[in-house]
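Appendix B, record 7
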Amino acid sequence: MVDAPALPERRARAHQARVPRHRAEQAEPRFSGAFSALGGLAYGGAQVSASVIDLDSDERVVSIDDRIVLPTASVGKILLLIEVSARMSDQRAPALEVLDKTSRDAVGDSGLWRHLQARTLPVADLATLVGATSDNLATNVLLREVGLDAVRERTEGLGLLRTALLDLVRDARGPDDAPQLSVGSTSELAWLFAALARGQVVDALTSSRVLGWLSLNTDLSMVASAFGVDPLSHRGVDHGLQLVNKTGSDAGVRSEAGILRGPRRGVAYAVSVQFNDGSIAARLRVLDALRTVGLDLLEYVH
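Structure tokens (predicted):
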């Protein structure tokens, strides 16, 4: 169990000035804050994993238990988006093909479509909703259209052995259902985003389309909370930064993978934490650690 500090202690720590690590003192930032923060979570009983790849040198600059498989919640929806984009590229799923939502697709939590009056939307719009708001209803409709087996086949074809979308989205998981929506290793997820950045996932068009959907993501509550970009509008370059990311949240799970480019260089990153979500203090401690990872990423690219 994560030994979470009391909320007043957390507030006091949050208001403490962060001591800058000047490049004159340390030529290359090496993520000491991230190692310390994630190590603190692990010491408190959480499972943590992180991987960071320099997009210019292809060096893996951070590797923290990056081969272990952890739940990644909605991060696995990126695998569905890749399959949908690939089908659009070879015109097996035309962008304007209209799909209906049905009662069997219905699910709660994240997303907008269940709050909208429209009963049908084009494939491209559904993928946009998944990228922007991790829309659960749109996810289930797309999965019904392309099939979970096709997503698995595509995932394996990409060489991903520890990362998978296991199931459709459910309000409750029974004994016959997959225990998690998705799982993954941060090593593979960082590699996947690096490959997307280089246009190497299926082909350049497929990769670019997926990145376009994900560039609309409005969830900047984890690692990306450190980057200072507008959650509702960050497709362009802002103070030299450009971000594309996908997050996943579930009870006791926080996961994020993405690409961050800055004036000095770019990185592909992935971080996952599985923890005892028994109190708000425990959850906030995890979010603090993820933000610390983000601060180190920001220092590395800026």
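Remarks on this record: The chain has one domain: 25-301. The longest strand covers residues 242-250.
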